[in-house]
Amino acid sequence: MSDLIQISGVTVLFGGVRALSDVSFGVKQGEFLGLIGPNGAGKTTLLRTIIGTVTPESARFVLSGRDIAGLPTYRRARLGLAMTHQIVKPFHSMTVIDNVAFAAGYRRIANALWAMSSFNRFAERRRAMGLLESVGISDMAGKSVVGQPLGVLKRLEVARALAMDPKLLLLDEPLAGLNHVEAARLADTVADINRKGMTVLMIEHNLGEILRVSHRLVVLDNGHKIADGRPKEVMQDQAVRTAYLGKEKTDAAS
After folding, report:
1. How far apart are CA 131 and CA 123, in angstroms?
2. Where in the chain are the domains?
3. Under CATH, to which class is 1-73+204-254 assigned?
4. Per-residue confidence band for 108, with pLDDT thresholds at 50, 70 and 90
């Protein structure tokens, strides 16, 4: 199976501080790749560099055979990238379904003002309802997003990203803030979306869930890639154990 995206030599500096240092790996078509590492490892920075909202010192991104490194964010989105964020930010003036329908319309219409005035067209709303069903919140379709619990908003964020018709779905800690049951159910939902053909690259601190649902893990620590492989094998790697537990604890456990 070939790589859907090749990520090569990503180096990012923030005020002279090296946030990422020569990070490289590929994501295969149809793969569910987990991106993990301690706080401050550079995970979110990497996703934002891929999507184009962070400018790297150096990097190369090849998506479906096309080098997208020099393209603005909106063009990367139209070529197949969509990203969710740790902090959900739906349009509070819209209902749940209209949030998704707007994303569907914007993906297809180049003129944003036209999209804003026509997002409630039947085709977009019908597709939006299908996406809400796929993430398990179709019963909330006509309700305002204001006051909705975090579990619903997290699922809405995934549905909005899917409305962009991505080739690669980038998820930044979708399980953060959820209780054990909610996290497991959302992880299952994302795994089901992957099984239906969507390639997923997901950051997650919930190790139990990411180990359960991902096919492969890439581990970052202090801006460096320190491991890449099958989840169980990666978590047995000494460098990974040290990154999470510290050298003294791993020595004591040996």
Report:
1. 12
2. 1-73+204-254
3. alpha beta
4. low
